[in-house]
Design a protein that fits this description.
The protein folds into 2 domains: 138 residues, Creatine Amidinohydrolase, Chain A, domain 1, CATH 3.40.350.10; 224 residues, Creatinase/methionine aminopeptidase superfamily (Creatine Amidinohydrolase, Alpha-Beta Complex). The protein is built from 10 helices and 20 strands. Strand 2 and strand 3 form a beta hairpin. Helix 7 crosses helix 8.
């Protein structure tokens, strides 16, 4: 935790005397709170963290998470924990921990307006600094502990992806399949799902962010399953596409073209390459095919404590890849009224290129009805 905090202060521009991270009520919880305070469980609503340039950290926790917070603090002598009860007590204690005229950095990207007004009243003379860019840049490059958790989350997602074909049967609904996938992630050790599980049968697969419904599977349909597991707050994000029953020659060719596009994108992954080049490599493959124009999203995004944790890989992002970044690569083709195919993997950028974190088979798979 100390090393992470120091990295944030090194990247802060302009400089600050303290970094204050504030949590509101769920879902408005700043995941950067858990970047500087590595506590494996607890919601920490209404809590705060005060970080300093020397790497020390003071956590103001509610009584609900006191035990979890104290256990985490006992593992790190640079962390102290205090119990507060309510917003007023939180702001009073913050004003005692940080000089009233300090240069105070806040993570504006994940700060609610209500919390900003509240902390502003506690520090009417403060010089506010935006820590969002520094925090984002630090979180994008993972340390060894983060990579281990990402790897575990990816292992769980890969295991479930391998099991999905055995779950397919005529009449199973999208909601039933999504529920079974989430149950199996939990059995494999996930502490939760990374995001709302996406399952789309047939024409529903043409909508990339489709929410599963009570729609039963029919032989001859293609299937898109996009899901992820949590492992000690770190996420995975994997998509696999299948075909159920009689062969659909077009959808098979679509799957093969998406796999080709993913390979082209992966071939671009190495340190120093602008993120947009990964997207453009996949787009060139699809735009040269009969399905030109049917790839309608960026080819990926960074992952970590959040599913979209830092930046996107789209045609406008010049940011270069760095060793230690964890990203998804997920081209897709979506045919309205018929179906879609997306293949998504989590990878780690390495000095030589990349390493797959997700390992489930990617090739076209036709499941007998």
């Amino acid at each position: 935790m100390k090393a992470r905090i120091r990295r944030i202060f090194e990247k802060l521009s302009p400089e600050a005397d303290a970094l204050v991270l504030l949590n509101s009520a769920s879902p408005h919880i700043d995941s950067s709170f858990f970047y500087v305070f590595d506590v494996p469980s607890g919601l920490f609503e209404g809590c705060a963290a005060v970080a300093r340039a020397d790497g020390s950290l003071t956590v103001l926790t509610s009584p609900l998470e006191e035990e979890s917070a104290q256990q985490a603090a006992r593992r790190d002598r640079d962390v102290s924990v205090e119990v507060i009860r309510g917003r007023e007590e939180r702001e009073k204690r913050l004003s005692e921990l940080v000089d009233a005229k300090s240069r105070i950095a806040l993570n504006f990207h994940e700060l609610t307006h209500e919390d900003f007004l509240s902390v502003s009243s506690a520090f009417p003379q403060a010089d506010w600094r935006d820590a969002s860019t520094a925090v984002r840049k630090c979180r994008m490059v993972k340390d060894a502990a983060e990579i281990e958790r990402l790897r575990r989350a990816a292992e769980i997602g890969s295991r479930v992806a391998r099991e999905i074909p055995s779950l397919l049967r005529p009449g199973i609904t999208e909601l039933e399949l999504a529920g079974e996938m989430e149950y199996r992630m939990a059995r494999a050790g996930a502490s939760g799902r990374s995001f709302e599980t996406i399952v789309g049968f047939g024409p529903h697969g043409a909508e990339p962010h489709f929410s599963p419904q009570s729609y039963g599977l029919v032989p001859g349909q293609s299937i898109v399953c996009d899901f992820g597991a949590l492992a000690q707050r770190y996420v995975s994000d994997i998509t696999r596409s299948y075909h159920f029953g009689p062969t659909d020659s077009e959808m098979k060719r679509v799957h093969e073209k998406v796999a080709e596009a993913q390979k082209a994108a992966l071939d671009q992954v190495r340190p120093g390459v602008p993120a947009k080049e990964v997207h453009l490599a996949a787009a060139r493959v699809i735009d040269a095919s009969p399905w030109k124009g049917l790839f309608n999203h960026g080819v990926g995004h960074s992952i970590g404590l959040a599913v979209h944790d830092g930046f996107a890989l789209n045609p406008r992002v010049e940011e270069p890849l760095e060793v230690g970044m964890a990203i998804t690569v997920e081209p897709g083709i979506y045919i309205a009224g018929k179906g879609g195919v997306r293949i998504e993997d989590d990878i780690l950028v390495t000095p030589a290129g990349y390493e797959f974190l997700t390992t489930a088979p990617r090739e076209y798979l036709e499941v007998s009805a």
